[in-house]
Amino acid sequence: MKHIDSYNFSGKRALIRVDFNVPLNEKFEITDDNRIRAAIPTIKKITGSGGASVIVSHLGRPAGSYDIKYSLKHIVNHLSELTGKKVKFGPDCIGDETLRLAKNLKPGEILLLENLRFCKSETKGDREFAKKLASLADVYVNDAFGTAHRAHASTSCVAEYFGEEKMFGYLMEKELESMDKVLHKAEKPFTTIMGGAKVSEKILIIENLLDQVDNLIIGGGLAYTFIKAGGGKTGSSSVEEDRLEIATNLISMAKEKGVNLLLPEDNLIADKLSNDANTKEVPIDEIPDGWMGLDIGIKSIEKFRSVIEKSQTVLWNGPLGVFEIPKFERGTKSIAKAISEATLNGAFTLIGGGDSVGAIKKYKLEDKVSFVSTGGGAMLEYMEGKLLPGIEAIRGS
Ligand code: AMP
User: Fold this and answer.
1) Of the candidates 131, 149, 168, which is a domain's last residue?
2) Active site members
3) Where are the alpha helices (DSSP H) in the chain?
4) Which residue range forms the structural domain that includes residue 218?
5) Is residue 324 in contact with ligand 1, taking CB distance under 6 Å?
6) Within this chain, do residues 245 and 335 fall inside the same structural domain, yes or no?
């Protein structure tokens, strides 16, 4: 494995796997270009130091054949603007014509190839397909953190055809550095805030973090399974009946390991999931039948805020309430604010996985935290302690 900063790209062609899986509207206009912007430093580094870039990505979930809705040609003009270069487009990702386009690239030029997932071989992790991709370049740069948990041809298999000529791009390096800092080098006190819809999706990550964290704050829908497991009345709140035992076990594991587990004390309950619902604030374990908890209450906000503001490391995954509906967004908004204040006081704060990223953006605080991960599923799996194929393919010899 090589390092992007010390590698000499002069006269070389680099196959750069990026994640340009951006949302497009019905006119095929990009509605959020964050993922493209995130890959620009890597592309600029390569083209600016005399290398040529052959860029590959997926977009959406096409059924393994051409679909104009998912064509990467919609990205070309914007990529040209962001890189300041006239980006060329290759209407296929392999084949003689693609090889010719790649070989004709001059130093500093950029070629964007068509959606990898128009070929079924990509998601199957087909070796022959990976070999053909590899034939397009001299060096492989993986900057697609969002797909690092997939063993696809372009994210993992392709690496083996480059020998040692493989490396992470800047985005990937930043993602790994941020996650490793939290997982292995967290400054104390270290607080993790877990929210979102379901305990079942968060068990492995909670278990993996219990050895590291000082404070574990649990909010959002998943809190109710813990409250019910402790004998509380949860009304019609979202409870996973088949996870009550696991919640009880997590509570005792936290106790054994000396982790300060904080559940909400109070919550905002509603008679329906709507902005015109009737609401009231009650203790979290006293929810009447027919009512459901949709946000944390004011006492919980204050309690959580004071813990967050004293922390040196904060990891946040999942909203504290149904923040998509304004009536139930106060908890999530206040916690997002508390995290940005902790950052201002010197804490390292990492936001990632699922809807907490949506929330931090909604409140325009993404520049006021240390790092917002671009990979939902990939980040969760890494934090669960799993080895990700896209990362191992580069790190392994
Ligand atoms: P996740 O993808 O795990 O981060 O889950 C995000 C979803 O959890 C969001 O759509 C929230 O609306 C939902 N959520 C948060 N709090 C609650 C709650 N108290 N009850 C039901 N859903 C919730």
Assistant:
1) 168
2) 35, 198, 354, 377
3) 34-48, 76-83, 96-103, 120-124, 127-134, 170-184, 203-209, 223-229, 244-256, 298-309, 330-344, 355-362, 376-383, 389-395
4) 175-383
5) yes
6) yes
Ligand 1 atom nearest to 356, measured from its CA = 4
Same domain (yes/no): 329, 185: yes
- Pair (162, 192) in one structural domain: no
Of the residues 137, 168, 199, which one is the last residue of a structural domain? Answer: 168
What is the CATH number for 182? 3.40.50.1260
Q: Residue 319 has what pLDDT?
A: 97
146 and 213 both lie in a single domain: no
Q: Are residues 152 and 186 in the same domain?
A: no
273 CA to centre of ligand 1 in angstroms: 12
Does the Cβ of 341 fall within 6 Å of ligand 1?
Answer: no
Do 95 and 120 form a contact (C-beta atoms < 8 A)?
A: no
Neighbours of 189 (CB within 10 A): 17
Residue of the nearest CA to atom 20 in ligand 1?
A: 221
pLDDT confidence of residue 397: 57
Q: Is the CB of residue 220 below 6 angstroms from any atom belonging to ligand 1?
A: yes
Does the CB atom of residue 38 touch ligand 1 within 6 A? Answer: no
Query: Using CA positions, which residue lies closest to atom 2 of ligand 1?
Result: 354
> Residue 235 region, left (φ>0) first, then alpha (ψ -120 to 50), else beta?
left
Probe target for ligand 1 pocket from 201, 267, 322, 323, with the most ligand atoms within 8 Å of CB: 322
Give a yes or no: residue 390 inside a domain.
Answer: no
Q: Which stretches of the chain drop beneath a pLDDT of 50?
A: none
The CA-based angle 315-333-280, given to 5 degrees, is 120
Closest residue by CA, ligand 1 atom 11:
322
What was the pLDDT predicted at 208? 94
Total number of domains in the chain: 2
d(CA 16, CA 48): 14
* Helix H or strand E encompassing 313: strand 313-317
Residues in a beta bridge with 215: 191, 260
Nearest alpha-carbon partner for 24 in 55, 65, 68? 68
- 248: CA distance to ligand 1 center in Å? 21
Cβ of residue 293 lying under 6 Å from some atom of ligand 1? yes
